[in-house]
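dumping the sequnces here before i forget
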Amino acid sequence: MDKIHINIIGGGNVATHLIREFLKHPEIHLQQLYARNLDQLKEFEGIATLINDLNLLTPADITIVAVSDDAIASIARQLENYPSLVVHTSGSKSMEELQNLEKGVFYPFQSFSKERKQINFKNVPVLIEAENPENLEKLTFLGNILSDKVYEMNSSQRKALHIAGVFAANFTNHMYVLAHQIMKENNIPFDLIVPLIHEVAEKVSNLPPIEAQTGPAVRNDLKTIEEHLAALDKSKKKIYELLTQSIIENKNLK
Amino acid sequence: MDKIHINIIGGGNVATHLIREFLKHPEIHLQQLYARNLDQLKEFEGIATLINDLNLLTPADITIVAVSDDAIASIARQLENYPSLVVHTSGSKSMEELQNLEKGVFYPFQSFSKERKQINFKNVPVLIEAENPENLEKLTFLGNILSDKVYEMNSSQRKALHIAGVFAANFTNHMYVLAHQIMKENNIPFDLIVPLIHEVAEKVSNLPPIEAQTGPAVRNDLKTIEEHLAALDKSKKKIYELLTQSIIENKNLK
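..and the predicted 3d for all of it:
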């Protein structure tokens, strides 16, 4: 079977990880990579064709717009008469953001940081959406090369999933940030908490999170909660109070 | 070398995991297990001596009080004239909670749920404290049987570490609970988010959490933030607002 020809627009975290992954699969031909600032694509110099002018973009099987949410509409306007399938990679934007292009969505549900060299894409759910069965099939084909988990999902469900991801990934990471600060202030190396972080994440592989809840709030250990609040600065105290209250409310709902 | 003789007081999550682990090591003799309600120790029937009367407790090398924070002082009072080393397993209580017993602390820094069958103890930091070098050596000896990471830590540092753990483990798990609710309301299976949860936890193995932060808050993507807030119920909205604000504040501090 012929190679599938892919263009990628964008030089951020998502684009970088998609490009790194696509390069591993001989079934995929990376045709053109676009970034406004070519520095963002430096690691792919000599490996793929880099462009910084959208007028140079040639037709492909799929053109993936992996840019920040706010930039999608402007890219779509610049591609106005582009003749082939264009998809974005955003959780929160609907397919309609791509206006009157032949369009779809290719949303890999993962948290991407450039600094992380490798991601195991096999486990990364890829949520796709398109306007017709033919394009859906194209996106399924591409998704299956990367991942064992390709699902069709409409824009409204995808938006809900993205919000869930903000809680489970972005806010969770922020909890690590606050823990790190507390440890630093007390001269405790961050390494000490990494096995705990891993175990808590591992638990939910086979235990519903509500069953995995531990700690002073769910135990209703008011004495410890008070001691902790007394030890925290104003901004961490506010967070501790609100989350403790939420844990208690959810325990009662259980 | 002779076996080290251990008694364990308690039948909750920490006691259960310590007992399961100790049973794997031939160097450890589990002498007596105490719980007020012997049902809690049912899985150890026929494997160790179970008692539900503290007057029956015999001297040992180390007696580990693995009970809820609030119960430690009462156990200590009941053990008043007990002649050998007694340690508790609490992050937040000082060693003094054990009053005038020969005392110490043996704090495995991990989140324990009975429902999790196995924990890799080799990676679990064990923080110990004692009143004299002899007892410190005893606790080090026991700690080294289980873990590669045994450190002496005083009560005040241990308390800070415990607070960090509340953020990185208990509050993090609560973020998973909220994500789960959002997904359930939208008929999305929880499985879909597990790879994301794992990746976010994995990242901090080699990236400081502040560098690993992704999502609308750190990108200052106000449009997405507003859309998310509009989609959330009152209690999740409050949490979303506060944590978003905190992510932005910390970004500016960076």
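The first helix of chain A runs from residue 13 to 22.
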